[in-house]
Amino acid sequence: TVFQLGPSPTGWTQNVLHTFHGGNDGGRPGGRLVFDNFGNLYGGTDGLEPYADGTIFMLSPSDGQWIYAVLYNFGDGYMPGTRSLTLDPAGNLYGARWCDSYPHGMVFKLTPDDSDWRYTSLHDFTGGLDGGGPSNVILDSYGNIYGTANYGGDPQWCNGYGGCGVVWEITP
């Protein structure tokens, strides 16, 4: 589920914004959610068998309700493990996928395009010196994208154990 906690006279009240069903809406949401300037909330799902395709979704506030929409369905049959999303000032979404058809992960961009979203792969990790298993994605004011990878990198820093991960940067 995606839920909201709000203060109440007796503590906190939970409001469920969306319950995932594991079908076309995805399943197993994970990672950080992000708001845009209009109050829309964005996130990602891993997917559930037999629908292993993960999704990027948006929840929009409307008359006291939250309207759920799938912005992008990865459609590749892999549970992508989207961990975090971030938005740039133009409304483009950036994120990292782990267990997808590129086994060491990738960084992607989703660009709003009329009534649809255009997917662009920005980097496919090799698990070598560039790392593997990307997680959080952040942007700086110049449009550079930064994040971490959980493994790979230079093995000399981990006593020859295949690398202990990297901090990476993608420049526009």
Describe the structure.
The protein has 172 residues and is mostly beta strands. 0% of the residues lie in helices and 52% in strands. It has strands at 2-8, 11-18, 29-35, 41-45, 55-62, 65-73, 85-87, 93-97, 106-113, 116-124, 132-139, 145-151, 166-170. The strands form 4 sheets. It has a 4-stranded antiparallel beta sheet, with no helix packed on it. Strands 7-8-9-10 form a 4-stranded antiparallel beta sheet, with no helix packed on it. The radius of gyration is 17 Å and the shape is globular.
Kindly report how far apart the N and C termini lie: 35 Å
Helix fraction by DSSP (H/I, runs of at least 4):
under 10%
Strand proportion: over 45%
Shape: globular
What is the string of SSEs from the N terminus onward?
EEEEEEEEEEEEE
Q: Could you report the average pLDDT, rounded to the nearest whole number? A: 84
Kindly list the characteristics that best describe this protein.
172 residues, mainly beta, 4-stranded antiparallel β-sheet, globular
Can you describe this structure in just a few lines?
The protein contains no helices and 13 strands. The protein has strands at residues 2-8, 11-18, 29-35, 41-45, 55-62, 65-73, 85-87, 93-97, 106-113, 116-124, 132-139, 145-151, 166-170.
